[in-house]
Write a structure and sequence with these properties.
This protein has two domains: 67 residues, Helix Hairpins (Orthogonal Bundle), CATH 1.10.287.70; 213 residues, Four Helix Bundle (Hemerythrin (Met), subunit A) (Up-down Bundle), CATH 1.20.120.80. It has eight helices and no strands. Helix 3 packs antiparallel against helix 7 and helix 5 runs antiparallel to helix 6.
C-alpha cells in the first residue's frame, strides 16, 4: 500500500550514503565513450557501448529499487515531495535544452549554412572560393555529396502513423491518471497498459522505418548533413521513447502492486510529464524534419 506523506515530519529525509550516483557516472561515461568510438568506427566501440548500456540499466534498477523501498516505508514527507517535483521540472527543462541544440543545428544548416555555401547573402566569397557550382536546397548531403544519393522518407506514411500513435498514447496515459485519482484500479491498469503497448508499437514502426531508410533509400547516418540531423533527432527521440516506455511499464507493475493511491502518486505523475514531453518533441520533429 502507498504510505501517506507526513506533513508533520520535521526532519527532511536524507538517505544514507549511496554508491549509485558514483557508479552511475562511471557507467554513463563508459556508454558515451563506447558510442562515440562506435560512430568513429573503432573496433571496440560497439561492444563497449552495449556493456555501458547494460551496466547503466543495472545501476538504475538498483537505485530506483532503493527509492521505491524508501517511499513505501513512509520516509518521505511533503517537503521531499516538493523536491521531487522540482527535480523533475528541472530534468525536463534540461531535456528541452538538449533537443533545442539539435533543432538549432537543423535550422542553422537549413537557413544559413546551405544558402551561404550556395552563394546567397554574405556567402558569395565562400561559394566562389570553396564550392563554386554548388546549389543549395533541402534535403542536401553537402557540396561534396557525402554518402551518395539518397531518398527521404515520406511524411505521410509511417511518420504520420507514429504521430497518431503517440498522440493516442498521450490520451491513454491521461485517462489512466484520471482513473488513478478516481480510485478505479482496473481502468488504471487497462489505460496504462495501453500506453505501454502504444509506446512499443511506435518503436517497432521506427525500427521498420530505419531498416527501410538504410536498405532501400540509402539514407544513413553518413548521408551528409541531412542524414546526420535526421538520425540524431529521430534517434535520440526514439531513445527517449524507449526509456519512457520502460518507465511506464515499471509504473504499471507498481500500480498492480498497489503502491499508489489517489493522493500520493508522484512517481506516476513524473512519468506522465515525461511522456507528454516526448509527445510534444515528436510533433515538432514531425513538422520540421518530415513535413517541411
Amino acid at each position: 500500500m502507498a504510505q501517506a506523506l507526513s506533513p508533520d515530519a520535521t526532519p527532511y529525509y536524507v538517505p544514507h550514503s549511496s554508491r549509485w550516483p558514483f557508479l552511475g557516472s562511471i557507467t554513463l561515461f563508459v556508454t558515451m565513450l563506447g558510442f562515440a568510438s562506435w560512430l568513429n568506427e573503432v573496433s571496440w566501440g560497439h561492444p563497449m557501448f552495449l556493456i555501458g548500456v547494460a551496466l547503466t540499466l543495472g545501476v538504475l534498477f538498483a537505485w530506483f529499487r532503493d527509492v521505491i523501498r524508501e517511499s513505501i516505508a513512509g520516509h518521505y514527507n511533503r517537503q521531499v515531495d516538493v523536491s521531487f517535483r522540482m527535480g523533475m521540472v528541472w530534468f525536463i527543462f534540461s531535456e528541452v535544452m538538449f533537443f533545442a541544440a539539435f533543432f538549432g543545428a537543423l535550422f542553422y544548416t537549413r537557413q544559413l549554412t546551405l544558402p551561404w555555401l550556395a552563394g546567397e547573402g554574405d556567402g558569395a566569397a565562400t561559394h566562389a572560393l570553396l564550392w563554386e557550382g554548388f546549389s543549395g536546397g533541402w534535403p542536401n548531403n553537402g557540396p561534396a555529396a557525402v554518402g551518395g544519393n539518397f531518398h527521404t522518407i515520406p511524411a505521410w506514411g509511417l511518420p504520420l502513423l507514429n504521430t497518431l500513435i503517440l498522440l493516442t498514447s498521450g490520451s491513454t496515459v491521461t485517462a489512466a491518471h484520471h482513473a488513478l485519482k478516481g480510485g478505479h484500479r482496473k481502468s488504471l491498469l487497462v489505460w496504462l497498459g495501453a500506453t505501454v503497448l502504444l509506446g512499443a508499437l511506435f518503436l517497432y514502426f521506427q525500427a521498420t522505418e530505419y531498416a527501410e531508410a538504410y536498405k532501400e533509400l540509402n539514407l544513413t547516418l553518413g548521408s551528409g548533413i541531412y542524414g546526420s540531423t535526421f538520425f540524431m533527432l529521430t534517434g535520440f527521440h526514439g531513445l527517449h521513447v524507449t526509456l519512457g516506455t520502460i518507465m511506464l511499464a515499471i509504473i504499471w507493475l507498481r500500480c498492480a502492486k498497489g503502491h499508489f493511491d489517489r493522493d500520493n502518486h508522484f512517481a506516476f505523475e513524473a512519468v506522465a510529464w515525461y511522456w507528454h514531453f516526448v509527445d510534444v518533441v515528436w510533433l515538432a520533429l514531425f513538422l520540421f524534419v518530415y513535413v517541411l
